[in-house]
Amino acid sequence: MNGRLSTILSEKNFFYMLILFVVIGIGLFVFVQSSVNTFKTDNIRKNMQWMGNSIKYFCSSGYDQLAKVGYDEDQIQVILKQADVLEMVEDFARNNDFRVEVYELTDTVPLVLFSSFSSSGEMVEDVVELPLFQVLEVEVEKQKYNGFIVPFEAWSWRVMLLRDAKSYDNLLVKLRGFYLALGLLVVMLVIVVMLFLRQSRKASRILQIEQQKLQATLDSLSEGVMVIDSEGQVIQINPSAKDILGVCENDVCLGVHISEILSLKPLAGGAPLDRQDFEEGGGLHIGGQSNEYVLVNRQDEEKLVDVRFTRPTPDSRMPSREALVLSFDDITQHRKIERKLQQAQKMEVVGLMAGGVAHDLNNILSGIVSYPDLILLKLEKDSELRKLVEAIKQSGERAAAVVADLLTVARGAASKRETLLLNTLIEEYLQSPECLKLQKQHKDVTVKVRLAPKLGQISCSPVHIKKCLFNLILNAFEAIENTGVCTILSKKEIVGKQQAERLHLTPGDYAIMAVSDNGSGIAGDHIGHIFDPFYTKKKMGRSGTGLGLSVVWNTMQDHQGIVVVKSGIGGTAFELYFPAVSGYPVKQKEVQSHANLNGSGERILIVDDDPLQRDIATDFLVELKYEAESVSSGEEAIERVDEESFDLIVLDMIMDPGMNGRKTFEKILEVCPGQKAIIVSGYSESEDVTETLALGAGGFLKKPYSLSQLGISVQELLIVS
Amino acid sequence: MLRIIFQLLLGALLMFNSIGYAAEIIKIGVSLGLTGGYALTSNKQKKAYELFEDDINSGGGVLGRSVKFIILDNKSHKETAIAQYRQLIIDNKVDFVIGPYTSGLTLAIAPVVEDLGYPTLAAGAAADVIWQKGYTNIFGMWTPASRYVLGFLKLMTFHKRNRIVIVTGDGAFAKGLAIGARKWAKALRLEVLDFISFPEGTDDFIKIAERVRASNPNILICTGHYYIGASMKRALLKIGWQPQVFYATVSPTFQKYFEDFGELSEFDFSTAIWEPHPKLKYPGSYEFAQRYTKRFGEPPTYHAASAYAAGEVLKKAIEEAGTLNRDVIKKTLQNLNTMSIIGRYAVDRTGIQIKRFPLIVQWQKGKKEIVWPLELQTQKVKFKGLE
Predict the structure, then answer these.
(1) Fewer C-beta within 10 Å: chain A N or C terminus?
(2) What CA dihedral angle connects A626, A632, A635 and A641, to 10 degrees?
């Protein structure tokens, strides 16, 4: 009401209205004043006329009475009758607040015959000349009167009625007083209205600012907030609430019943909330505690929301109708992240365990994987033992592969990244003996390959990508019971903001590698566990350690990508999203024969706490024509480097007790800046490995390594670089 | 215990209440010049009020209540009269007041009764000026002074006596009356040879008498209270000159005038508002005169009759209003039209009496005779030397 009045009575409007009032007021004053004057004149004239007629009647009656008895000529009788008439005239005049003077015309000289004045002696000048029956302004004894002359010719009389000219002045004074009071009242009213307007505007501004602040606060909340009245009608809603409800910006929400835009079903089960629940609040847990509901929004999307119902304490700032405040969060993504976090934590625990085991196993396997190479070098080509030694080596390598998977799961694919074309990697793998062997084993499965042209390159660990491909193709083959199709495809996709939020990716270009089958699909209750280590539902007799999809998941984590699984009765599809990178793909190095890996007697220091590892490395390096020396700790290595110079140091990363590889290399660099070194470790690349490489170490070699792997690494550092 | 105390209290309350009710009389206050210059007239009024009080209370009072007059002596002084009317109203808490004798005193106390809202019947005042001041609580009982002499002047006109000297005191009543006389004399084409005004209280009437003689009028009009008329009469006798017609206000209406002047009062004229004559057929008028004379051993003048009549008019106003509320009584008195022992009562918007007409009386053979108006004439007018 105040706001509306303030709007109508803006200062400008008010000013114009004021001028209008003043003009009307002046006009009215002039009109009324004029009317009163006219009224006064008319009234005086009518009154005088009436009085005059009455007096004339008295005179006529007196005269007639005399005439009737024949005394009209008797002077004494006439005088006595005139006295009687004058008595009546005086009484009549007094009772009507008039005064009267009777002039007798004798030879045109007027004589004051009678005056009702108490002390009359003065005569109105030229009374004979004055007009009859007209209101006159005369002055007697210095006082102004309205005069009215009535003649009575029978007695040669001029009867002059006199009335105080101020008799109507009181009315005019009252009128002026009324207008003065009205004027003062108007001025006061103006002041009051001005003050009211100022106060109202100030209050309105404050209210507006407060409302803006409140609205801004509500708008800035990521939490959806709605206020409804006791009838369930929405009286306030913020943008986050609209967003969660899937309501368009322009959609009218205020005044709408909440049940028309909000559908909530308790997560714990039970009937959805209905109109009555909102209006009466009976079925709601009011008090601020969280309640999880499934919300179906306008776009028919199901969302998990955390809703709190509160009823604010009514005060002057709240609507009189009892209000209910709903605040709710969309926790759909939160729950997904929670699940992912749980998965990651589970993987971390498993990884820690697997990592510890893998380190020891790698050291153990070094003997099985590495020594067969030396034995084979020393055996005759037609030796019967060669086949057995090669079998030992293959078994060792398979065991090492399992350990490598364990390490991938434990520490991720923290290998050195290369920029490569994804299509090239896929094609290389499909042509690899490993893949060909798989296809041969699953002849009933048709492999279809659809690779998108100009897919671009990715930054990756090729070994791990191929390992992922292997695991996915293997799973696809094994998911198909009899005959079926396994499709391998690649495609390019630009992930927008919304999709990125949904997939938890950074928006941008992605290269996607997908492997799908038309098998029976993955059961709904299993799909949440497929990436768990050692989780498998494969039938007995089939391959798999339960680490395949864990490797895929961890690899994608390490490559800042994701795995999207779509499974149904028509089959299963795995889509691997890799961030596309710019740059040029590097060429794959060719594998060289160990004959070309021989050195020229360069001095190499082997630092390893494991005597077996020291022996293997020493034996390999000696075989490759290097001069090798080994020490068992970092401290010893520093002393030796300080004493003599070495062309290369083969440095184990994890040594216990004593300083690890990174610290040892730091100290060595202090003694011998620019010292070349290869880092070896039973683990995958760790932070220490990365930092050591950054300090200047030339390469990383994972245990167990073969003769040729060591030879290539040493040669690259000593010769190539 | 509490119950007993309550019953005792209730009983006491009822007892005091009944006493208060029984004592609820109507008190009417009057201040009169019982001593001093106006004592003669004022004492006659006092007696009339006493007679009225007895008459009304024996007749059952007013509205079932008895009437009590509180009459104070103002010693014929204005200031005392003013103070006494305040005392009567504020201290004595009278229900009503009646005006004092003389126009001068009535004019003096008029602002008091006006301020305090007491409607007041002017039982002893006639000066026109009282009703020219705008007072709304003064109601006239007498013909206005300006008309006192009119009847006499008409009579003189009729009998062709036309040369007049007017002698007047400067009091409100006397002056108003004299001016009225002059005004009406002119209207009646009578010649006013001299107009002599003197301060009231003067003793030098011989000088005035000589001045009158110098004008040689055939009519002398002397206006004022008792002593002025009587003093003028004595002064004329002293200088040994008498006009053919001697007219004086007030004094010749008293029996004392005849007692003072004996046969020398013969043919002297005056104006009376009322006369105790059986020819005046006003209800109770003659009976009043009889009872007054019987009780006080002297005949009443119009002053006494006016006092009694004021009581009658007030009684009728109260009865007509049915209340003692003074605002209502005031309105009733403004509109009342009733008879009293001195004739009809009615006033105009100013409060001046409009229904009364004066009687012109003349001493003839030791008796006051009404000679005007002709309808009430008890004897024809007689002139000195023409009898």
Answers:
(1) N
(2) -10
Amino acid identity of A443? Answer: K
Residue B230 CB contacts under 8 Å (≥ 6 apart), including other chains: B248, B251, B257, B260, B261
**Subunit contact A91:B354, Cβ cutoff 8 A:** yes
3-state secondary structure A270-313: CCCCCHHHHHHCCCCCECCCCEEEEEECCCCCEEEEEEEEECCC
Q: Using alpha carbons, select from A439, A426, A498 the residue that is nearest to residue A466.
A: A426
Tokens 């368009």 -> residue = A248
The gap from C-alpha A554 to its chain's centroid, in whole angstroms, comes to 34
Rounded distance between C-alpha atoms, residue B170 and residue B174, angstroms: 6
What is the value of pTM for the model shown? Answer: 0.52
- For β-strands B120-122 and B163-169, DSSP reports them as unpaired
Ranges assigned E (strand) in A438-561 = 445-451, 457-460, 484-495, 508-517
Nearest chain B Cα distance for residue A138, angstroms: 22
Distance of CA A318 to the CA centre of its chain: 24
Number of other residues whose CB lies within 10 A of the CB of residue A148: 26
Q: Read off the pLDDT of residues B213-236 as tens digits, 9 standing for 90 and up.
A: 999 999 999 999 888 999 999 999
- pLDDT tens track for B252-308: 999 999 999 999 999 999 999 998 888 888 899 999 999 999 999 999 999 999 999
Residue B151 to residues A87, A695, B195, Cα–Cα distance (Å): 11, 153, 19
How does DSSP assign A670-691, residue by residue? HHSTT--EEEEESS---HHHHH
* CB contact A83 to B (< 8 Å): yes
Q: B301 CB near a chain A CB, below 8 Å?
A: no
Which residues 171-190 of B are in CB contact (within 8 Å) with A? 176, 179, 183-184, 186-189
Q: Are A264 and A305 in contact (CB under 8 A)?
A: yes
CA distance A104 to A115: 12
- pLDDT tens readout for residues B26-66: 999 999 999 998 999 999 999 999 999 999 999 999 999 99
Per-residue confidence band for A5, with pLDDT thresholds at 50, 70 and 90: low
Q: Checking DSSP bridges between strand A508-517 and strand A484-495, what pairing results, if any?
A: antiparallel
Q: Do B179 and A118 touch (CB under 8 A)?
A: yes
From A474, A479, A471, select the one nearest A539 (Cα to Cα): A479
Q: Are B249 and B348 in contact (CB under 8 A)?
A: no
- Residues in chain B, total: 387
Q: What residue ranges in A526-634 does DSSP mark as E strands? A: 562-568, 571-581, 603-607, 627-631
**A138 φ/ψ sector (left φ>0, alpha ψ -120 to 50, else beta):** beta
Structure tokens at A149: 């002359």
Q: Give the minimum alpha-carbon distance from A104 to chain B in angstroms, rounded to a whole number.
A: 10
| C-alpha to C-alpha distance for B306 and B250, rounded to whole angstroms | 14
Asked whether the beta carbons of residue A95 and residue B350 sit closer than 8 angstroms, the reply is yes
Main-chain dihedrals φ then ψ at residue B233, nearest 5 degrees: -60, -45
Adjacency order of strands within the sheet including A677-681 = A627-631, A603-607, A648-652, A677-681, A699-702
Distance CA B246, CA B110 (A): 33
As a residue count, chain A comes to: 721
Partner residue facing B188 (CB), from A79, A97, A115: A79
Amino acid found at A541: G
Percent of chain A with pLDDT over 70: 87
Contact predicate A446/A484, CB 8 Å: yes
